[in-house]
Specification:
2 helices, 203 residues, Lipocalin, mainly beta
Length: 203
């Protein structure tokens, strides 16, 4: 039986010719690939927006707050630590608002001075305590949970910087035999703050 299937003529698009019975030379009808539906303008803008957000997420990293460098401890000798013996005794402090508070210091050993705070001038049961401890040539203040380290020391002034779980710094300055000041410094939302407490000996 004669094959009546027709194929497009290569020379003339308007004419048809019979298909070859040889499978190697037979011209097979071309089936165009399925066309993807065109994106609407809304879909196009959504795709562009998603791509932009993904690109921004890959290239832009969130800013991390700057971590201040660790303080450099001053080298404190045993003789320098012994010069703090003037702290021993009872002291009355006054804050910026005029309110009084009370502290006492006791020299326990050549490397340790204990400190206590009280709620009133009776110096009864302390409500808090701390220590000044010389470890090697490093002087630490506070408690194991919160500590400061001495970064500068001379005959009249001692500067303390946050060392462990602390955020403020402070300076002790001896003004007279029975008077010294504690100056606290800290940062509040990027603004440096300072407060001075005056300490007077209680006889």
């Amino acid at each position: 039986m004669k094959d009546e299937r027709l194929a497009p003529e290569s020379q003339s698009p308007g004419r048809l010719r019979p298909l070859s019975k040889n499978p190697r030379t037979a011209v097979r009808p071309l089936i165009p690939p399925p066309r993807r539906p065109a994106l609407s303008s809304a879909h196009c803008w959504l795709a562009i927006a998603v791509a932009a957000v993904m690109a921004a997420g890959c290239t832009a990293a969130p800013e991390r707050p700057e971590v201040p460098p660790a303080p450099t401890p001053a080298k404190v000798s045993a003789a320098q630590f012994a010069s703090l013996a003037w702290l021993e005794g009872r002291w009355r402090g006054v804050d910026a608002g005029g309110a009084a508070f009370y502290e006492s210091y006791a020299v326990v050993s050549p490397t340790l001075i204990r400190s206590f705070t009280y709620s009133d001038s009776l110096f009864g049961t302390p409500n808090d305590s701390g220590a000044l401890e010389l470890r090697g040539d490093t002087l630490l203040s506070g408690s194991p949970a919160m500590q400061w380290v001495v970064t500068y020391a001379d005959s009249a002034q001692w500067r303390f910087a946050p060392w462990r779980a602390a955020s403020n710094a402070f300076t002790w300055e001896r003004v007279a035999a029975d008077t010294w000041t504690a100056t606290l410094r800290w940062d509040s939302a990027g603004v440096p703050k300072e407060r001075v407490y005056r300490m007077t000996a209680v006889r």
